Amino acid sequence: MIIGISGMIAAGKSSLSDKLHKHYKTSIMLHEFEENDEVFNTFLKWLYEKKPNLTIGFQSYIVENHTTKFNELVKEFNKKKRNWENDHIFLDRFSIEHYIFAKLILSEKEPKYLEAYDALFEKLISKDELPDLAIYLDISFDTFKKRIFERGRESEIDNWDLNYQYFKNLHENYLKIFKEIAKRFDLKYVIIDTNNKSEKEVFEEAKNIIDTFNK
């Protein structure tokens, strides 16, 4: 079973994914990106520095990179003779979520850019790589800001003021657009309100959701 962990930047996706991966001993884990991914980190730095005309290139790289790694992971899953009903692949964010970022940024440009990305997106995304269940981690904007500064990623903190309105807009629209694309791709999901909850409490809630989910 494929489980996608979803949500706004700094919602706790990686922490939860890692905990679930450790708990479910036969599971396999796919992170959104590797910490040493030079291409991703460069694109991200440029994005926060407001370099122009990045969005289609950046989001295309992310989706193509994710699809390639996911296909490799499926081969590994099958090679290890894992069971698709009882064993798990955990995705720390998944491909269709990146449409949210692209839509918000490209909506500020001429319509043809979002239309072009839409067409590209439809071609790149396969239903086979979508999760059987998505667990969406919801956070308030205040919680988001607190976690951004706690985790100390240089490109985010150094450019906080420059990107305040972008982060605010992203937070205000993330869940709404997530629900739209979930409907578009017939994706099952559950929302966890993570505000004022410890990582352990969020983990226990997510574990109960997975254990009681009927595919």
Topology (SSEs and partners):
Elements (H helix, E strand, L loop, with lengths): L1 E6 L5 H11 L4 E3 L7 H11 L6 H25 L9 E4 L5 H9 L4 H14 L8 E6 L2 H11 L2 H5 L1 H25 L4 E5 L5 H14 L3
Parallel strand pairs: 1-3, 1-4, 2-3, 4-5
Helix pairs in contact: 1-9, 2-3, 3-4, 3-5, 4-5, 4-8
Strand content: 5-15%
**Order of secondary-structure elements:** EHEHHEHHEHHHEH
Total of helices: 9
* Mean of all residue-level pLDDT scores: 90
CATH topology tier name: Rossmann fold
Integer count of domains:
1
CATH superfamily: P-loop containing nucleotide triphosphate hydrolases
Rg, Cα atoms, Å: 17 Å
Helical coverage, percent range:
55-70%
CATH architecture: 3-Layer(aba) Sandwich
Q: Strand order, biggest sheet?
A: 2-3-1-4-5
Largest sheet: 5 strands, parallel
Extract low-pLDDT stretches: none
Number of strands: 5
Output the structural class.
alpha/beta
End-to-end span in angstroms?
8 Å
Backbone shape:
globular
Describe the fold and architecture.
By secondary structure, the chain is of the alpha/beta class. The chain has a single domain (2-212), classed as Rossmann fold. The protein has nine helices and five strands. Strands 2-3-1-4-5 form a five-stranded parallel β-sheet, with helices on both faces. α3 runs parallel beside α5 (111-124). One of its GO terms (molecular function) is deoxynucleoside kinase activity. InterPro entries: DCK/DGK, Deoxyribonucleoside_kinase, DNK_dom, P-loop_NTPase. Keywords: ATP-binding, Kinase, Nucleotide-binding, Transferase.
